[in-house]
Every structure is written in C-alpha cells, then in structure tokens.
C-alpha cells in the first residue's frame, strides 16, 4: 500500500479550482518533487495534505487512514510535518530548546519547556548530527544563518517523528554551499522519511528527485523520472505558456 493516496481531490476559491481532480500516490521513503508554473496549485496541494486548507471534495489517505475531517495538529500527530517558506523557529531560544519545544507536542512553548525540561536529549543530539547542527545546540536560533535555520526546522520535524515531510521551496535564498548540503541531507533522509518538495530549482530537483509530478491549472499534467519530465512536450508547452 502506498503511504499517501490522493484521489479526486479538489478545492475551489471563489469559483477558481486551485486543485482540480488531483490523483497522486506517494510511496514510503521516496522523494517526490512537485513542479509546475506559477499558480499551478502546488502549495495548495501541500496545504490540503497537512490540513491547512480543507478540500471541496476528494480523499487523502495516509498510511491507510482517511485524513478528511482531521485538523492540522491531528495530522501532525499522524506523522505529517510541514515546513513553510518562512521558518517557524523561536529565535530567542537555543537550537536545543527549539527541539525541546518541538518534541513536547504540546501547545505553547513555555509550558513545553517547564513541563518537559530539556526533552529527550539523546534524540536531540542524534537529530542535530543528522542535519549538521551538532555544534550549534547552544546557539540562539536568531543567530543562525538562513540555511542553518532551515535545517533546524527540518530537525524539529524529525524530532516529532514526521514520517511525511512537506516542503515549499526549501532551498530558496540559500547559498550554493547550503543548497548542496540540503541535497545531501535529503538524500540521507530518503528511505527513512518521505519527502514531497515544491521546488523551482531544476538543478536541485535533478539531484534529489526519485520522481516528479508536474501540475498545471490545478491538475496533474505529467509524472515520471527527471529525464522523462525534461523530455515531455506537454510540460515544455505549459512552462512556455507562462
Ligand atoms: N487562500 C486562497 N484564496 C484564494 N485563492 C487562492 C488561495 N490560495 C491559493 N489561491 C489561488 O489558487 C491558485 C493556486 O495557487 P498555489 O499557491 O497553490 O500555486 P503554486 O503552484 O504553488 O504557485 P507558485 O509556484 O507561484 O507558488 C492561484 O491562482 C492562487 O492565486
């Protein structure tokens, strides 16, 4: 059984079908890149999966469970994590304290810190090593570079046991070195986590994607390997049209 099964999903905003009868299947542990011209419905698709937006109709099943009707935090508890373009870290807290807040899964950062103290430090160390921030545990999040802040946010999702991680342009604003490190991190997460990434940077997509789905006008236009998509005439036309 696929980890994520989307069938006939649609949502309308004032008469506009931002996502239009979308069918999408994602296997456990794969890296799926979601491409498409501006306004194709990519971010809205992530919003529908994580519960930020409720669909007009259709079905989203995660590990066999229908997500319709579940709120955003309930989906997070099921193992779905969303990383937004603007990082949602607590700048006044250290890297380790941010992980404690993420680990607690309780609303409210102060309650989390006072109730759970420093959290599960062994897990924190393991996760920080994984994302390359082991040396920064005591540094305030506000003093991290842009790339480091993005990795901290990914670390927060890893400590919450997010099995499926949804990301919107994770490399936007990163230096070349940071982008390369992010590609390495994603390749290392492959297999143990499922990633759905909205990304415009084709050189990054080539480095990380197991599979690509191209959306246009809310619907799926094409899917396949990087090579298949780069040679797909309908995809070229959709991009040139924009
Ligand atoms: N909350 C909303 N209310 C009204 N319209 C919306 C809302 N969210 C998205 N839209 C519209 O839905 C369409 C799809 O938007 P979406 O952001 O999903 O596209 P995208 O493929 O992610 O584009 P981009 O690459 O530019 O971010 C657009 O026409 C957008 O204006």
TrEMBL record:
Matches recorded under InterPro entries: AAA+_ATPase, ABC_AA/LPS_Transport, ABC_transporter-like_ATP-bd, ABC_transptr_urea_ATP-bd_UrtD, BCA_ABC_TP_C, P-loop_NTPase
Molecular-function GO term, any one: ATP binding
Keywords: ATP-binding, Nucleotide-binding, Transport
GO CC, alphabetical: plasma membrane
Record-linked Pfam families: ABC_tran, BCA_ABC_TP_C
Entry protein name: Urea ABC transporter ATP-binding protein UrtD
């Amino acid at each position: 059984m696929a980890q994520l099964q989307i069938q006939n999903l649609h949502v309308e905003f004032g008469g506009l079908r931002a996502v239009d009868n979308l069918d999408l299947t994602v296997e456990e542990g794969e890296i799926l890149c979601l491409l498409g011209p501006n306004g194709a419905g990519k971010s809205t698709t992530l919003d529908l999966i994580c519960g930020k937006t409720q669909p007009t109709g259709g079905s989203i099943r995660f590990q066999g469970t229908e997500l319709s009707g579940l709120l955003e935090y309930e989906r997070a508890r099921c193992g779905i994590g969303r990383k937004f373009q603007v990082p949602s870290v607590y700048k006044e807290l250290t890297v380790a304290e941010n992980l404690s807040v993420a680990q607690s899964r309780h609303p409210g950062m102060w309650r989390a810190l006072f109730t759970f103290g420093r959290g599960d430090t062994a897990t924190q160390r393991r996760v920080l090593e994984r994302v390359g921030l082991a040396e920064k545990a005591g540094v305030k999040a506000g003093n991290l570079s842009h790339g480091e802040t993005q990795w901290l946010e990914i670390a927060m999702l890893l400590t919450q046991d997010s099995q499926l991680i949804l990301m919107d342009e994770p490399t936007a604003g990163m230096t070349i070195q940071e982008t390369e490190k992010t590609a390495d991190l994603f390749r290392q997460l492959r297999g143990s986590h499922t990633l759905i990434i909205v990304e415009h940077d084709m050189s990054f997509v080539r480095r990380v994607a197991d599979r690509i789905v191209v959306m246009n006008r809310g619907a799926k236009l094409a899917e396949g390997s990087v090579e298949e998509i780069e040679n797909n005439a309908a995809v070229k036309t959709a991009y040139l049209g924009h």
